[in-house]
Amino acid sequence: MSAVHGTTPTTTFDFHDRVAIVTGSAGGIGQAYAEALAAAGASVVVADIDAAGAEAVAAAIRSSGGSARAVAVDVADPDSARAMAQAAVDEFGGIDYLVNNAAIFGGMKLDLLLTVDWEYLNRFLSVNMLGALNCVRVCWPHMVARGGGAIVNQSSTAAYLYAGFYGLAKAGVNSITQQLAHELGGDNIRTNAIAPGPTDTEASRTVVPASFMEPILAGLALKRMGQTSDLVGMCLFLLSDEASWITGHVFNVDGGQVVRP
After folding, report:
1. Catalytic: which of 33, 97, 160, 166?
2. Count of alpha carbons within 13 Å of 68, Cβ hemisphere only?
């Protein structure tokens, strides 16, 4: 595969006759994932709590010749997630891939674990951590019916740094990824995660002030902000048959922010 910085990567991946759900795909990284999967031939469910935004992304995919359906979903709500999975089956005949990207990030409160409002914390964790598990639980039987599949969870380098309850949630995503790899491996379903470093999205620009971001970027091995296009190649690879013996891993795509053994 090859990629040009700042553009949608050109890949050799072929996802024709495959069905993918991408949560949190009305914008940002999730939108880039959905568009790349559609460009590689997959039928894509653009799932987001922002119904209008999801429809705009799905419509753009269709206008470019791709196959997409928008579905409104609250990933923390089991009934809503179940309806999302059923919509994929009804529209496209099944589910092969699930990308758990949905999260509360844009507009996120900045607070300490010791003082953050308890109700807010519970809602935050139910979306940013348990939302991934919730979506797997409703999609898994449909993936089994297709003979297997692949899941990519969206983590973050925040899981390895001091990042308050955001880091806590992403550390939980890492653990969920590793546990599900074992629970689902016998069903020929692989489960991995991507941990992006600082990535230029509208949401990140609203959460992290430039004065905070500058020293973060200075500490990277590659001294620039990541782009959404930097992440899609890893997502497509992990979903593809090229990664058929890879499961239970968290892959940093972070410009060298965090080095782990």
Report:
1. 166
2. 29
Residue 256, beta-bridge partner list = none
- Which CATH number is associated with domain 19-252? 3.40.50.720
C-beta separation of 42 from 102 below 8 A: no
Query: What is the radius of gyration, based on Cα positions, of the chain?
Result: 17
User: Who contacts 215 (Cβ-Cβ below 8 Å, separation ≥6)?
Assistant: none
CA dist 32 and 230 (Å) reads 10
CA dihedral 254, 29, 230, 177 (to 10 degrees): 50
Q: Where are the domains of the chain?
A: 19-252
Of how many residues is the chain composed?
A: 261
- What percent of the chain lies above the pLDDT cut of 70? 96
Cβ atoms within 10 A of the Cβ of 203, count?
Answer: 18
Task: Give the C-alpha separation, 9 to 32, whole Å.
Answer: 10
Look up residue 47 and give its DSSP letter: E
Q: What pLDDT, in 10s, does the model give residues 182-205?
A: 999 999 999 999 999 999 888 878
Q: Can 166 be counted among the known catalytic residues? A: yes
At 97-135, the pLDDT tens digits run 999 999 998 888 989 999 999 999 999 999 999 999 999
Band the pLDDT of 5: cuts 50, 70, 90: very low
- Residue 153 CA, distance from chain mean position: 5
Task: Using DSSP bridges, classify how beta strands 189-196 and 67-72 pair: parallel, antiparallel or unpaired.
Answer: unpaired
pLDDT by residue (tens digit) across 137-177?
999 999 999 999 999 999 999 999 999 999 999 999 999 99
Spatial distance between the Cα atoms of 198 and 114, rounded to a whole number of angstroms: 25
